[in-house]
Amino acid sequence: MVCNRKFSLGFLCKNIFLAPKPITSPVPEAWYPTLSVVMLAIGLVVTASFFIYEATSSTRNRSLTKELTTGAVASVFLANLLAVGRIGFVGLQLSMR
Amino acid sequence: MGMGSRLDLFLLTIAILSGTVLSDLILFKVDRRVDLTSQVVRVTSTLKVENDGTNSVSEVLLAFPDNQVKHLAYLTVTPNEGKGKSKHSANSFPVEVVHPKDMPPALTFYSVSLPKALGKGESSTFDVLAVFTHTLRPFPEKITQADIQLLVFQDSAYFLSPYAVRVQSLSVKLPDARIESYTKLENTKIHGSEIKYGPYENLPPFSYSPIVVHFESKQPFAVAQELVREIEISHWGNVQVTELYNLNHGGAEIKGEFSRLDYQARPHIRGASALRNLVARLPPRARSVYYRDEIGNISTSHLWGDSKKTELEIEPRYPMFGGWRTSFTIGYSLPLQDFLFQSEGKRFLNITFGCPINDVVIDTLIVKVVLPEGSSDISVSTPFPVKQSHETKLSHLDVAGRPVVVLEKNNVVPEHNQYFQVYYKFNSLALLREPLMLISGVFFLFVACIVYMHADLSISKSSASYLAKLQWDEVQGAVQQVQSIINRCLAIHDKLEVSLRDLSRTGDAQSCKAARKAADASLKELTKELKPLLGFLQSSQQAAQILPKVENLVAKEKDLQDRLLAKHSTVVDCYEKKYGGKEIENRVAQHQQKINALRQEVDDLLDFIDEI
Fold first, then answer.
1. What is the complex's ipTM, to 2 decimals?
2. Which of B308, B419, B439 to substitute to test the interface with A, most A CBs within 10 Å?
């Protein structure tokens, strides 16, 4: 009977063939800081191009699809700003208390 | 003291009066070890049970007086395999409270179910560990800062049991300090800081002989009146544990003043039993550990870790004497893969139940496990009985709130720090809900921008300035289109140049001619496109300023085009006639000069128009 000595769960020894599989996050954790910076940079670049397009093209030349796609791509990359920024904001709150 | 002695007399009379013989078991040998070195009293009794009768017996009764049972925090019975007994063996016998008939009152009985029934003449040995809290009373109850803390312990020298006992002995282990007084019965010996009573032979059931031990203890009594542990799981990678403590010193209360000078000059004489620091053993790879209270961060702490554990040593803001209290929060986060597992379609969290600080007695322990939103089918499995309830918590990016399982237990000792599991079902796709919410939020902002740019917010649709603005927009559009056409023409010119260079490299005149043909065709098309735009610009009033520039640009571009085509045909001709490189250069020299100049001017004009 092979019991994993890492956790002292006697009852788990019965399901030796179904030794529990640890669950991790879908994105490897070590990448979190790098990934968030890269995605943020790309998101800002795409946002900038969106606004430049809005500002320079005149009414007749605008194409709605191009606007919408640029906006969608930018929001995908920018969403991580809010996610990561939220964690940072909470951390700031806690450290200030 | 009065209450205690009255109870003892009562029990003595019970012992004399009761003649009930309970089944046919006898306790052959009883070894009791009482450990008084810390604030909880640990009584380990090794019982050798023998079946003297004819029926096979599968139940053994243990008796405790009612006033002791009030403070009983943990009771476990494990088999004793002789010398090499395992510490946390999983095969402890099930114990439950029973109420047998014809028993003396003021006693509580626990029934231990043996896995294998004892036949006639068989015997078996097992260990009973009972942990009692709040049984050591400080006496005197109030001491000054310089006094030593003295405690009183009361128990019986004889093992209280419904069966007759052949041989029994009791050994009381005291902390390494002064022993003030102890009851001297027959067969009492003292070895250093251990008192041995016994062996006593052939005692009837329910025999009771009270003993009192009065001794000094330097142990601070850390008692947490309430501990709230909140364990929050996030599927994105970590388990966050927050523990809120309300701690007080449950030993002898301090009377008189507290002198900080005395305490710091001679801490072990003035303040021997003060609570100076607490050591917490956190799981390995704990990170972001913080220690703070309502004022803010407390910096008197040390953290060091290795692969088996992370140790956190904390000092409260002031040394705690008897009767004083403090409250603080400890928080840390743990990696998800050490604690969350998946088996049989359900996920479960496997984490310790009690408090990680050594040697703390908790009056009320509340463990809250916060599961991510979207968890369903929640069930809990604990190694000892707890009170369960449910609530919800609203947190970041929550729609309905996260389900919280609340487990409550009273009278918790360090032996309760065992693993427990919380099972739940979670759909993996539900992980995406949070990022999708964020993405749609940001996308809404962009759509708002687009709508704003497209919306026509002018109040009067027929005013002169509005119409002028409309016309200017159209002119701008036309000019931009002209620009793009000219850029395409320039691109074609570049392609022609490239083909010429290819020719000089490979000498292939045919491909050059083909390129020329293609260029001709596309240039014709572009000229056709240019015509209506130019016409519109000429007719529009707003374009009056820009029109000459645009016409200039178009003319120059045409010129450039003609010259380039001329140069191209000359070069191809020369190749066909197989002239040398020098000659070709001479012929195209003036064309080339003009071409360069024109190209420069076209570029300048384009830039100028851009800026308008």
1. 0.72
2. B439
From residue B346, give the alpha-carbon distance in Å to each of A89, B33, B340, B342, B351: 33, 44, 11, 6, 16
Sign of CA dihedral B323, B327, B328, B334: positive
Mutant choice from B422, B442, B452, B612 vs A, greatest count of A C-beta within 10 A: B442
Chain A within 8 Å of B612 (Cβ-Cβ)?
no
- Quote the tokens at residue B287: 């990170």
Q: Which of A21, A68, A90 sits opposite B341 (nearest CB)?
A: A21
Asked if B61 and B198 touch (Cβ cutoff 8 Å), the reply is no
Nearest Cα residue in chain B from A55: B453
What crossing angle do the helices spanning B546-576 and B581-611 adopt, rounded to 10°? 160
CA distance B229 to B416: 14
- Write the CB contacts of A14 (distance below 8 Å, at least 6 apart in sequence): none
Which of A82, A90, A92 to mutate to test binding with chain B, by most B CBs within 10 Å of its CB?
Answer: A82
Per-domain residue ranges for chain A?
29-96
Mean pLDDT for B155-166 is 87
- Look up residue B9 and give its amino acid: L
Between residues 74 and 133 of chain B, which touch chain A (CB distance below 8 Å)? Answer: 88, 90-91
Determine if the peptide bond prior to B199 is cis (ω within 30°).
Answer: yes
**pTM greater than 0.80 (yes/no):** no
Q: Name the DSSP class of B177.
A: S
CA atoms of A35 and A41, how far apart (whole Å): 10
- Which residues in chain A are contacts of B453 at CB distance < 8 A? 54, 62
CA pair distance B382, B367, nearest whole angstrom: 12
Q: Which stretches does DSSP call E strand in B371-474?
A: 376-381, 387-393, 402-412, 419-425
Which regions of A1-97 does DSSP assign to beta strands (E)? 21-22
Question: Which of the two residues, B309 and A14, has the higher pLDDT score?
Answer: B309
Per-residue pLDDT for A16 more than 50?
no
The SS3 assignment for B196 reads: strand
**pLDDT for A60:** 59
- State the DSSP string of B534-599: HHHHHH-SGGGTHHHHHHHHHHHHHHHHHHHHHHHHHHHHHHHTT--HHHHHHHHHHHHHHHHHHH
Interchain contact, B237 vs A97, CB within 8 Å:
no
Tell me what the mean pLDDT of segment B237-243 comes to.
Answer: 89
- Give the integer Cα–Cα distance in Å for B411 and B73: 6
Residue of B nearest to A77 (CA): B439
CB contact under 8 A, A20 and B348: yes
| Neighbour order of strands in the sheet with B179-182 | B137-138, B150-156, B210-216, B179-182
The answer to whether A22 contacts B443, with C-beta atoms less than 8 Å apart, is no
Instruction: From chain A, pick out residues whose CB is under 8 angstroms from the CB of B474.
Output: 58, 60
Token code pair at residue B68: 């002791």
CA B481 to chain A, closest CA, distance in angstroms equals: 9
The most distant pair of C-alpha atoms in chain A lies apart, rounded to whole Å, by 76
pLDDT tens digits, one per residue of B6-17: 555 555 555 554
List chain A residues with CB under 8 Å of B434: 83
Q: Does B337 touch chain A (CB under 8 A)?
A: yes
Which one-letter amino acid corresponds to residue B530?
L
B289-293: long-range pairs with CB below 8 Å, 24+: B289/B330, B289/B331, B289/B332, B290/A94, B290/B329, B290/B330, B290/B331, B290/B332, B291/B328, B291/B329, B291/B330, B292/A97, B292/B328, B292/B329, B293/B317, B293/B326, B293/B327, B293/B328, B293/B329
Tens digit of each residue's pLDDT (9 = 90 or more) over A69-81: 888 888 888 777 6
Q: Is the Cβ–Cβ distance between B157 and B20 less than 8 Å? A: no
Cα B427 from Cα B511, distance rounded (Å): 62
Planar angle of CA B526, B530, B532, nearest 5 degrees? 135
